[in-house]
Amino acid sequence: MISENRHEREIADGLWRKCERCDELIYAKDLKANQQVCPECKFHHRVFSVERIEQLIDEGSWSPIDTQISPQDPLRFRDRKAYSDRIRETQAKTKLIDGVQTGLGQIGGEPAALGVMDFRFMGGSMGSVVGEKLTRLIERATADKLPAIIVCSSGGARMQEGMLSLMQMAKISAALERHRESRLLYIPVLTHPTTGGVTASFAMLGDIILAEPEATIGFAGRRVVEQTVREKLPDDFQTAEYLLKHGFVDTIVPRTQLKQSLAQLIRLHRPVNKVAIAARPHAAVAASSEKQPEKQVAPVLRNTDSLES
Which structural domains are found in the chain, ordered by start? Predict the structure, then answer.
């Protein structure tokens, strides 16, 4: 007979997580250790900026930049409530200033400039602060000759800022063009969801475009597209797998392999040290020419124009 004073053992709040797809009950620490990827069905649970930075950046190497930039309400926009009130409420809830975190750090020992969008902040929408911080990040990467990586997660342009939000598309794209002209690497990582003006600009301008499995990626919504083309779209339309099949992304990388893949890509595209090449002994070059007089010596610096197109 169970004593009336004996209390039923309670499970601590947040100790277990149920997978959104397979309903498997997963120990929260195990799910975190697996980077929020279900060990049973491989479903990628949503990850926000703080945890994403922890997953990608080497411990102790993260240095945030432009943390002082805060959003304004130049249009005095109001729908059901004032835009300024929405900003304050979202900042208090998320502990973020706006929808992106930017900084410098190392990925697998390789220096890089990283921007991570956060969907919790008004759907990761791209307002003036997001555009300014990403532009400054890219300009810093260009000045310091670093690869730029942006983890995209956004519903698109921020409607409360009107045309000012749309202008960010051109501003970020212009900074990326200067980065490209300096022959530096830019990799966007498309996560769930990446839509609207973000997809229409910097998310699709990468030298190498990566995506997470089953991420929703597109511009207009599915219903709008169907009404426009007057056709029934495939079930997997606007998924990472559909875009890979049609050549819009280069590869799909599981989250557990993302850091390793980025580090490898950065190493492969590291700028050639022209000073070291110029210092090579002329005798060694002459000797190699004497051994194979019938062949031209291969140029040390290869033409990379095809990689930039």
Answer: 17-46 (no CATH), 47-268 (3.90.226.10)
